[in-house]
Structures are given as structure tokens and as C-alpha cells.
Amino acid sequence: MRFGRLKIERSPKIMIIPMIDIIFFLLVFFMMSTLYMFEQNTIQVMLPQAAAGQTDQTSLVPITVTAPGKLVFKQEEISPELLIPRVQAELVRDPETAFLLRGDRQAEYGTVIRILDILKKTGIRKIAVATETGE
Q1: All domains of the chain, ordered by start, with CATH?
Q2: What is the pTM of this model?
């Protein structure tokens, strides 16, 4: 005696709606988590104003002269004598590195010019001076 199959074979169905929900949730999660990964590490200085300022979106190595005349390379306070080796180390990594000189509005003009002269002596090809756009 032959019995029919008791188990009916069905092909599996792929549930696409829950999969879309999970993918959307992951997308939102990673978008929100990357917002908190970026941390603004800059020294607060009052920049001078310039009418013809331009914004450049390339990454620049910041060199800051604070109001009391202290020199900050990236996030580390250094003496002007240590500036040349630090800049040359950056140029060894990438000869096309651009540097951003940020001088506080209250800093002495001579101090900023002295730092600019030191930067020129190191052979930098790209130096930008940071200003605020003003009317």
C-alpha cells in the first residue's frame, strides 16, 4: 500500500519588508554614530577680519599663534625652535602638505611675521593665513 506524502513541500519565502527595516535601522545607526566620532580640536583664537576671504576644504596642518604669543602646532604647544623640525617631518610624510597659520587678533604682528618667516625657510609650498570674513 502506498500512501501519499504526508508532508507538503513548500519553497521558502523571503520576507523582504523586515530585511528593509533592518537595513534602514543599520543605516541610521551608522550615520548617527559617525556624527559623534568627529571631534573639533582647535585652539580658540579671535581671527582678524578680511573682506576677500576664501574657504578651502582641503586638510590643512594648523599652526596657531595665541594672544599671549604662544605657538601651537596642531594641538601641542611648542617653542619656535621646534617648529622647523615638526614642519619638516610633515613635509617628509607628504611634500604637498598645506599649512594654515592662525594668528589671534590680539597677538603681536611681529610674532606672526616671525613664524611666517620660519615657515618660509623650511621650504613649504603651501601656506594659508586664516581670517574671518567681515563686512
Answers
A1: 49-133 (3.30.420.270)
A2: 0.55
